[in-house]
Each structure stands twice: as structure tokens, then as C-alpha cells.
Amino acid sequence: MLDTEAIIKTYRGWDKLEKQNDIDIIDFDLIPPIEGEKFESREEVLEKLRYLHSEIKPENNQEEFIKAKVNASTYFLRALMGEEIPYYEYVENITGVRPQIIPEQDIQKQKQVMEALLREVGYKPDTESFEQFSSRIRVSKEEARQQVKSCEETIIPIVLESLGFNDLEFPHEVRFVEERDYWTGWTSTTPEGSFLLRYNFHPIHTWYRGDMENRTLHEVGGHFVQAANLKKGISRGEINPVIGVTTVQEPHTFAGEGIADTISCFLPEVEQALSLYGLLAREQRATRDYLQNNAHIWVNEGRNLDELVEYICDNHPFSTEERTRMNLENWKTNPSRKAYHYIYGISIYLHRQFQERLSPDKQKEYLRHAMSGYETPRQLMEFVDQLVEK
Q1: Cα–Cα 20 to 30 A to 226, which of 165, 302, 334, 376?
Q2: What pTM, to 2 d.p., does this model score?
Q3: CA triplet 92, 95, 100: central angle to 5 degrees?
Q4: Position 193 pLDDT exceeds 80
Q5: Of 25, 62, 127, the residue nearest 379 (C-alpha)
Q6: 249 and 70 in contact (C-beta within 8 Å)?
Q7: Reading across the β-sheet that carries 195-200, which strands appear in turn?
Q8: In this predicted model, what pLDDT tens digit does every residue of 225-254 receive, in sequence order?
Q9: What is the pLDDT of residues 358-372, one digit of tens each?
């Protein structure tokens, strides 16, 4: 039996408890307010999550996803409480994907795509250093602020029109912040339930031409469009409200991050709207995330951290030693980064394989399906197989 109200109250209560530890459990909260259950300890939350998980007997895809979501939460909470869970088991139970190495030949092929775009935008390694080139295409916070509205007005309508989502509305606030963390853009809801987009201009990050196009497409065209679809589906009674109380420690991130990073690969009309710098931003980040996929696995298998910093930075000139080292350390010790941050590289890699297997019409069908609800990676892979066979 699926006790929707009890699950929602548990997540709300857990989120309130963890805020005392400066940890946010809920990312998007897309449903009307319901008072959370009062918990005095993590042990109480874990006991409740385990009970709820045992009671779920899935009768459809949504309930199967919710069971996987609650299971992921128990794993994350166990790690927060200090339990040492084997790496592969931990990542698979939270993300729905078992960690797998991306073949080096595929990484080098992706690197060549990045290098070709670097030459196309004017990088001449024979006559200038990468540092000289990158300083020429650097973007200040003030310049980025000016680009925000323009990027949203030019790129997002094409996404909505292409997918038939013209009626979606997602008014949102944009903030520029400085947080020493890996992310450059983050979407969520505020405590009042409105949409919030933050851009991170901490000195650890450097922004370049095309990055604002890429982040707009990812955060707004990907995450906000999917969240708005979820909210609409919940209001119509088509989607269980539990799915609208999201965390980043659950299997929806495979589709959420994978689609946000590859939407312009699936939609040629969106790709054509990007500048060369926007394409470079997409491809250099894909190269980085492929490299980081493997490094994420290797650092958790005990490989030397200095060697992994070199592996990433030697193959990806946009990466810095400081940011790379920070990530590697977090991937091994931070319960959130140890699972959630893994999903970036593998979700791009597998979504590009989806795109290659599908005709243009079926590519759009996949996006419309995956962006209208939350499903596990296995469910989405099965849907792609069905599309291929149609």
C-alpha cells in the first residue's frame, strides 16, 4: 500500500530536521503545504523510511519510482549517519545506475570534438597558451547578468515550441551567489514555493563565452521545464504528489541531468540557435564529465588522488587543479557528492547513445515522455527500447 500523505510528511519532517545540520533534503517542492512529521533524530527518520519502503507494493511505474526513491533516501540517510556502504552498492541504490567506466576511446573521441570547436572559435595553440586564449573569452559577472534575459528569450521558446510545451509557465527569480562548491547553476524552489535559479560566481569558477547559453538551456530548458510539467501533472491528478517533493538523492537525476545536458543534441533547432561558443560550452563540459565519471569511480577504488587530478587536467584544459582536487575529495567523503555527482557523466554518455538510436521524431517523443514525469533509469531504458522497436 502506498501511503502518499505519510511519505510526504516524512520528507517534510526530515528536511526540517536536517536544516539544523545545514543540509537540504528537499530540492523542488511542487505541492501545496502539508505539515511535516516531527522527528527528534535521524534514527527516527530512518525507521520511518524503512517502514514506508516495506509497505510499498508497486502497481504501476509511478509507484515503482516512489519505492526506488524511498530506498535511495534510506541509503543516503545511512551514509549521513556514518555507515560505510560499499561504493557500487551506494551509488546504484541512490541513482539507479551502477557505476561503469566510459571507454577511453570514447573519451578521446569526445575530446577531439572539443578541440575542433576550440580551433573553430580561434584558439591557436601554436601561437598562444591556453591561459591567454581563455582570458580572451572570459565573462564577468556583470556581463553574465546582461546575458541572462537574452538567453532565456532566444533559446527557451524554441525548446517549448519543439516539444509542444507552449502552455508551460515557470516564472522564477535569478540570483548571483558565491559558494565554494562544484556547481555553477542550481534550480530549486524557495520556502514559499516559487522557482529559484542561482548562478555561482565564486572565484573557484571561471565563466566563458557560451557558458550562459549552456546554463540557461540546462537549468531553465531542462530543470524548470521538467518541474513545471510535474507541477501541472500533479495539479491534474495525473502524477502522485510524492514525486513532486524531490531530492537530488534519487533516481530521477539520471533523466534530469542527462536531458538538461543533451537537449540540444536531441533538438536540431535548439542546437542551431546556439553560438559556436555555446556549442563549445556544451562539448567541453561533456568532455570534463566523461573524465570525471571515471575519476569518480577510481578515487573510490583507492587510486592516487594526484594522478587523478593530472588525468582530468591534462585532458581538459578548462579544469583547474583546485576545483578538481576539491571534487575528488568530496566524491570520496561527502555522502551527497559520492552519489549525486556521479550521475553527470554517465547520464550524458547514455543519453547521447539514446539519441543516436532514435529517429528525430522518436527523439522528441522520448524527451516529451521523460520530461513529463520522473522514472528510474531502467524504466527509461525500456522506453527507449520500445521506441526503437516501434
Answers
A1: 334
A2: 0.96
A3: 55
A4: yes
A5: 62
A6: no
A7: 172-177, 195-200, 185-189
A8: 999 999 999 999 999 999 999 999 999 999
A9: 999 999 999 999 999
